C-alpha cells in the first residue's frame, strides 16, 4: 500500500485538491414486478440516509478530517442523498458558522425533513439510484460517492472500506489531483504523493476477485479504474428465491443474463 509522501516541505497551506469519485452497482435477479418492487424497498431500507451518513462519517474519521455540517434526505419513491462538509483540522466553536451542526442534527430534524453537511475546505456526498424495468428481469442499485479534500488528507485511503460497505458487482473509480501548491523553495508542486494507479490503494486480495481495467492520463494527474466481479454465485443474486428451486437450465440462463448486464454496465455501452 502506497502512502502519502510526507517528506515534501511546502510553503504555507497545501492548496492541492484531491477528488475521488466512487461509483458501484449491485445487480439482482427479480423476475416479477412484485419481486422487483420488493427488492427496491429492501435496498431503500438497507441504504437509507441514516446508514449512508454513518458511512460518510466513518470515511471522514478514517482520513483524519472533522465534520462541520451534515445534510441528508430520503426520497419518494426511492433513493437517498447525504452531504458532509469537513475540515482537515478541528475548528473551534467560535470559528464555526452558526448554520453548521457538527453532525449533531437531532434537534434540527424535528423542524425539517432534510439536512446538508459541510466540511471546511472539503466535502463528501453520496447519492443512491435504485433502478428496474418491467421488461427486464435484472434490477440494479447504484451508489455514487464523491470525496473532495484539500491539504494533506487523502481520500484514497478509504477505498477498501467503501468497497466493503456495499455489494459491489461493478465499480468505477475516478481520482484527480487539481491545482498546485508550492514547495518551501517556491517551486510549484502539482502532486504531493506517488501514484501510478488507483489499484495501488486497493487490497490485493480484493483485486483478485475482480477483472480490472485502468485508463490513466498521467500528465494531467487523472486516474480511472473499472472493476467487475469475476465469479457469480447465483444465490447471492436471487431475491426471495432459492437457487435449487430452479432447473439447471434456468440457473444457467439467469447467470448468463446477470453476466451480460454486468458486461454492459462495465463497458458503458449496449452490447447484447
SSE blueprint and pairings:
Blueprint: E1 17-29, H1 33-46, H2 49-62, E2 66-74, E3 80-87, H3 106-109, E4 122-131, E5 138-150, H4 159-165, E6 170-178, E7 181-182, E8 188-189, H5 204-207, E9 210-217, E10 222-229, H6 248-267
Antiparallel strand pairs: 1-5, 1-6, 2-3, 3-4, 4-5, 6-10, 7-8, 9-10
Count of individual helical segments: 6
Beta percentage is 25-35%
User: What's the SSE pattern?
Assistant: EHHEEHEEHEEEHEEH
What is the first-to-last residue Cα distance? 38 Å
What is the CATH topology classification name?
A: S-adenosylmethionine decarboxylase
Could you name the CATH homologous superfamily?
S-adenosylmethionine decarboxylase
Structural class: alpha+beta
The CATH architecture comes to 4-Layer Sandwich
| Overall geometric form | globular
Main sheet properties:
8 strands, antiparallel
Portion of residues within helices: 10-25%
Number of strands: 10
Structure description:
The protein is an alpha+beta fold. Helices cover 23% and strands 30% of the residues. The chain is built from 6 helices and 10 strands. The protein has helices at 33-46, 49-62, 106-109, 159-165, 204-207, 248-267; strands at 17-29, 66-74, 80-87, 122-131, 138-150, 170-178, 181-182, 188-189, 210-217, 222-229. An 8-stranded antiparallel sheet has the order 2-3-4-5-1-6-10-9. The protein is globular, with a radius of gyration of 21 Å. 38% of the residues are buried.
Amino acid at each position: 500500500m502506497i502512502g502519502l509522501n510526507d517528506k515534501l516541505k511546502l510553503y504555507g497551506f497545501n492548496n492541492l485538491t484531491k477528488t475521488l469519485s466512487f461509483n458501484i452497482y449491485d445487480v439482482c435477479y427479480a423476475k416479477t414486478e412484485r419481486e422487483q418492487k420488493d427488492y427496491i424497498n429492501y435496498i431503500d431500507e438497507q441504504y437509507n440516509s441514516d446508514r449512508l451518513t454513518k458511512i460518510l462519517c466513518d470515511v471522514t474519521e478514517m482520513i483524519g478530517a472533522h465534520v462541520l455540517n451534515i445534510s441528508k434526505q430520503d426520497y419518494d419513491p426511492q433513493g437517498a442523498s447525504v452531504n458532509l462538509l469537513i475540515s482537515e483540522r478541528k475548528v473551534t466553536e467560535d470559528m464555526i458558522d452558526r448554520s453548521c451542526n457538527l453532525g449533531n442534527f437531532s434537534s434540527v430534524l424535528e423542524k425539517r425533513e432534510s439536512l446538508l453537511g459541510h466540511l471546511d475546505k472539503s466535502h463528501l456526498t453520496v447519492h443512491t439510484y435504485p433502478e428496474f424495468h418491467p421488461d427486464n428481469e435484472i434490477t440494479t442499485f447504484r451508489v455514487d460517492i464523491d470525496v473532495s479534500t484539500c491539504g494533506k488528507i487523502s481520500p484514497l485511503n478509504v477505498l477498501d472500506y467503501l468497497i466493503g460497505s456495499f455489494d459491489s458487482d461493478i465499480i468505477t473509480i475516478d481520482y484527480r489531483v487539481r491545482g498546485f501548491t508550492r514547495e518551501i523553495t517556491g517551486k510549484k508542486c502539482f502532486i504531493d504523493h506517488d501514484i501510478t494507479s488507483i489499484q495501488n490503494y486497493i487490497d490485493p486480495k480484493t483485486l483478485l476477485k475482480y477483472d480490472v481495467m485502468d485508463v490513466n492520463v498521467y500528465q494531467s494527474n487523472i486516474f480511472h479504474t473499472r472493476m467487475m466481479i469475476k465469479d457469480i454465485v447465483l444465490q447471492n443474486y436471487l431475491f426471495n428465491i432459492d437457487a435449487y428451486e430452479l432447473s439447471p437450465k434456468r440457473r444457467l440462463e439467469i447467470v448468463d443474463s446477470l453476466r451480460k448486464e454486468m458486461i454492459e454496465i462495465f463497458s458503458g455501452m449496449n452490447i447484447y
